[in-house]
């Protein structure tokens, strides 16, 4: 019986190229047509694991964890300083679904800094904010503004302790005028004290006490 040989089916060359183009596992730097570049882990053609992303147009770098193509886990985000030509950190902390989520530290222009919790890219939860003028707010945040209970300490050591809403003093609170040796305790609405009681508080040791003490009722 004669032996019949059938021709072997040849695979199109693009199939081989496509297999080689599939990114999975650790890869060297992959360049995009817009100049961006990524070095790190992949899974099913998505950035996954540890990696470093460089955005050319935004002059920014992210170094940290990725999950299915998005920043997820712990990582730091830096931008290029136009003066020093060096990258400076803007945020270091936790991410989820490509947004700040969990505990992290953000550095703002003018030496301002926030340390605390984030949710969906916004300051939410407990946190401490250092302002340019030397003021410090420590307490609860809601949708990127002070909301809940918190304390604001001013550069002259005067401070407010109490409720906040939409970034303003709201609800029961106390304002300590330590420079004058007085304490105001009352109700606030949209940063304005509506009613309360003003009493002497450490007036003897105050650096700039009032001329006369407040008479007792």
UniProtKB/TrEMBL annotation:
Subcellular compartments: Cytoplasmic vesicle, Secretory vesicle, Acrosome
Listed InterPro entries: MORN, MORN3
Residue ranges of coiled coil: none
Alphabetized UniProt keyword annotations: Cytoplasmic vesicle, Repeat
Any single Gene Ontology cellular-component annotation: acrosomal vesicle
Function: Assembles a suppression complex (suppresome) by tethering SIRT1 and MDM2 to regulate composite modifications of p53/TP53. Confers both deacetylation-mediated functional inactivation, by SIRT1, and ubiquitination-dependent degradation, by MDM2, of p53/TP53, promoting a proliferative and cell survival behaviors. May play a role in the regulation of spermatogenesis.
Protein name, as recorded: MORN repeat-containing protein 3
Species of the source: Dromas ardeola
Lineage, uppermost ranks: Eukaryota, Metazoa, Chordata, Craniata, Vertebrata
Encoding gene, per UniProt annotation: Morn3
């Amino acid at each position: 019986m004669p032996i019949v040989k059938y021709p072997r089916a040849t695979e199109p060359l693009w199939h081989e190229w496509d297999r080689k183009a599939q990114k999975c596992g650790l890869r060297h730097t992959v360049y995009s047509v817009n100049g961006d570049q990524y070095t790190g882990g992949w899974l099913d053609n998505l950035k996954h694991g540890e990696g470093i992303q460089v955005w050319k147009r935004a002059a920014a770098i992210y170094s940290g964890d990725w999950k299915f193509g998005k920043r997820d886990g712990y990582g730091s985000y830096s931008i290029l300083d136009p003066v020093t030509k060096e990258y400076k950190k803007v945020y270091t902390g936790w991410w989820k679904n490509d947004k700040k989520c969990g505990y992290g530290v953000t550095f703002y222009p003018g030496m301002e800094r926030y340390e605390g919790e984030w949710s969906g890219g916004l300051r939410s939860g407990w946190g401490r904010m250092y302002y340019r003028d030397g003021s410090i707010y420590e307490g609860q945040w809601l949708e990127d503004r002070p909301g809940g209970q918190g304390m604001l300490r001013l550069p002259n050591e005067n401070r407010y302790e109490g409720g906040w809403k939409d970034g303003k003093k709201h609800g029961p609170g106390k304002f300590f005028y330590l420079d004058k040796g007085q304490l105001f305790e009352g109700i606030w609405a949209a940063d304005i004290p509506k009613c309360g009681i003003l009493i002497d508080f450490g007036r003897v040791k105050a650096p700039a006490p009032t001329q006369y003490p407040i008479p007792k009722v």
